[in-house]
């Protein structure tokens, strides 16, 4: 904000990218480790709500600062972004550490205190049962290796869990949401949609209702089923957009209406199913000892694929290049179809299972869940 030098602006952007990478990795991991079993998927899925709400605020501020012809046009949007990290930094002071982190450090007493604070459990026997279940899973995973190394994520039973987590994270880009979020305003403008900023804001606002609905839907529908259904629906939406623009001209009023309607429906379906489920699975599937490393690796791989999609998209849709325009959605329709079929056939059933149960099922151990005891009496 203080400089107009190109190198300084890039340095600032680099710092923002690093902080965002840490935030997405550890916020999702933290939510996954502190939430009770029946709320874990819904809680982690709220990461999608965070990004959608932030995007809505960003577009809203950008829309009303475009009238300024000075540096104010971008200084105001950048200044607004200070509020969130300041608020989070203060709030984090009052949050306890994850009980699973304390187990990793060998401090059962602190883990018990963290559980009491997070869950409001007062019965000492219930607390001890949950701490014991977490410790047992931790010891089981450390039976073959005491040191935690990233290479362990690609060995033995961890290999399957790591690959599933990586694929779920990359699925965020495969859904086409990166394309829509990055190029929706330009996309609408090229398609002849008037007041494109307003339509994008309306689309994001409607998507937020899907994000909020996901909190309840994920408690009712199995993860892979919900992901498969939403992916297939969004594949049909993408094919519909591309099909309309194959038959009609880019400047057609009817085609523009279809684009806005289908684009809005796409973001809503993504918000209620694909985004929350993919985030939840990315966090739930890795082993306890390698979770933060695996989630970080998965998020990084998704960033690479997102960069590739962002880099290639202008060449497909720009009139001076390949000039596909909205017909580019054929590619994203196909990727959504593949994602839906893959989810139904490959993703394991983790709904209603604690992180320790998931670990047990992955390595062929009997399932145990202290959460069941807590939930039954709570």
UniProtKB/TrEMBL annotation:
Source taxon at top rank: Eukaryota
One GO molecular-function entry: carbohydrate:proton symporter activity
InterPro entries: MFS_dom (IPR020846), MFS_sugar_transport-like (IPR005828), MFS_Sugar_Transporters (IPR050360), MFS_trans_sf (IPR036259), Sugar_transporter_CS (IPR005829)
Compartments it resides in: Membrane
Membrane topology: Multi-pass membrane protein
Domain Major facilitator superfamily (MFS) profile: 1-351
Transmembrane segments: 12-31, 43-61, 73-95, 163-185, 197-218, 225-246, 258-283, 295-317
GO cellular component: membrane
Broad class of where this protein is predominantly found: membrane
Keyword annotations from UniProtKB, A to Z: Membrane, Transmembrane, Transmembrane helix
Family the UniProt entry places it in: Belongs to the major facilitator superfamily. Sugar transporter (TC 2.A.1.1) family.
Protein name per its UniProtKB record: Major facilitator superfamily (MFS) profile domain-containing protein
Species this chain originates from: Penicillium daleae
């Amino acid at each position: 904000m203080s400089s107009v030098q190109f190198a300084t602006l890039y340095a600032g952007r680099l710092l923002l990218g690093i902080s965002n990478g840490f935030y997405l990795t550890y916020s999702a991991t933290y939510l996954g480790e502190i939430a009770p079993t029946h709320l874990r998927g819904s809680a982690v899925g709220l990461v999608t709500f965070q990004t959608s709400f932030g995007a809505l605020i960003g577009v809203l501020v950008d829309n009303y600062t475009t009238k300024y012809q000075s540096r104010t046009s971008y200084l105001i949007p950048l200044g607004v972004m200070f509020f969130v990290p300041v608020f989070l930094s203060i709030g984090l002071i009052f949050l306890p550490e994850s009980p699973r982190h304390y187990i990793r450090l060998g401090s059962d007493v602190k883990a018990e205190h963290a559980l009491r604070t997070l869950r409001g459990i007062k019965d000492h026997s219930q607390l001890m049962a949950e701490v014991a279940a977490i410790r047992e899973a931790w010891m089981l995973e450390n039976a073959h290796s005491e040191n935690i190394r990233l290479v362990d994520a690609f060995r033995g039973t961890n290999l399957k869990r790591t690959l599933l987590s990586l694929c779920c994270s990359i699925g965020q880009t495969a859904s086409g949401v990166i394309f829509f979020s990055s190029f929706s305003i330009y996309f609408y403008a090229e398609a002849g949609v008037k007041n494109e900023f307003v339509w994008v804001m309306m689309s994001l606002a409607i998507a937020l209702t899907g994000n909020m609905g996901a909190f309840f839907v994920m408690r009712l529908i199995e993860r892979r089923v919900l992901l498969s259904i939403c992916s297939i629906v969004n594949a049909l939406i993408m094919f519909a957009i591309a099909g309309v623009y194959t038959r009609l001209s880019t400047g057609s009023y009817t085609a523009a209406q279809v684009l806005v309607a289908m684009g809005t429906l796409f973001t809503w379906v993504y918000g209620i199913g694909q985004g929350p489920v993919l985030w939840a699975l990315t966090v739930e599937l890795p082993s306890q000892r390698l979770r933060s490393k695996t989630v970080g690796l998965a998020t990084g791989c998704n960033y690479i694929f997102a960069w590739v999609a962002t880099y290639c998209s202008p060449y497909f849709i720009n009139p001076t290049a390949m000039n596909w325009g909205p017909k580019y959605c054929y590619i994203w329709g196909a990727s959504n179809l593949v994602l839906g079929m893959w989810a139904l056939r490959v993703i394991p059933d983790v709904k209603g299972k604690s992180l320790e149960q998931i670990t047990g099922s992955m390595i062929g151990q009997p399932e145990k869940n202290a959460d069941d005891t807590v939930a039954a009496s709570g």
